[in-house]
Design a protein that fits this description.
This protein is mainly alpha-helical. The chain contains eight helices and no strands. It has a domain of 102 residues. Helix 1 packs antiparallel against helix 2 and helix 2 packs across helix 4. The longest helix is centred in the middle third of the chain and has 44 residues. It is globular, with a radius of gyration of 18 Å.
Length: 174
């Protein structure tokens, strides 16, 4: 029964996670933390920090961690199949319809509106990732601003920003 619950939870996550990596986070939190209580909120945030270290999709890493925690290797497999199956099916269907109707104004408007909602959810998750007291530090605010400028304006690869931030964290202990 647990394998089916894991599969269905991550199937729902994969089904509604529109917009990329961080759009998954509110969905994962809702299913894994709030609905099933497989992870505590603190554990969710800790695992979020850990999964960002490793390459690959956040949803796959969360599915693997949660599935394994709840049911070992079969749980990790069930979570990942659920996580991947819905987007694969949806993208096959969407590709067919999008190629036929992409210029229809209602379709364009729907995608533009979805983009705004995903943007808002990403901001909400960002604020959950750090406490406001961390932001008020001059050193931490400088790190946030520099990382933003490097990424947004100078187009520095995110991996270099993350490695650089880690090195700064090692050298300038909190």
């Amino acid at each position: 029964m647990i394998l089916l619950k894991i599969f269905l939870a991550f199937f729902r996550i994969g089904l509604f996670a529109i917009g990329g990596a961080y759009s998954f986070l509110p969905l994962i939190q809702k299913e894994v933390v709030e609905k099933y209580h497989w992870l505590t909120k603190e554990e969710f945030l800790e695992i979020l920090g850990v999964v960002k270290i490793f390459p690959g999709a956040i949803s796959i890493k969360f599915a693997t961690y949660t599935g394994y925690k709840m049911a070992g290797v079969p749980g990790a497999i069930a979570a990942n199949i659920g996580n991947l199956l819905s987007p694969v099916v949806l993208i096959l269907i969407a590709t067919y319809f999008y190629s036929r109707y992409k210029e229809v104004p209602m379709v364009k408007s729907a995608f533009a509106t979805i983009q705004l909602a995903v943007f808002a959810m990403i901001i909400a998750v960002a604020f959950q990732m750090v406490s406001l007291s961390q932001i008020y530090s001059v050193k931490n605010m400088a790190i946030i601003v520099v990382a933003f400028v490097l990424f947004f304006y100078l187009r520095v690869h995110p991996a270099f920003i993350i490695i650089g931030a880690g090195l700064i964290g090692v050298v300038a202990l909190p």
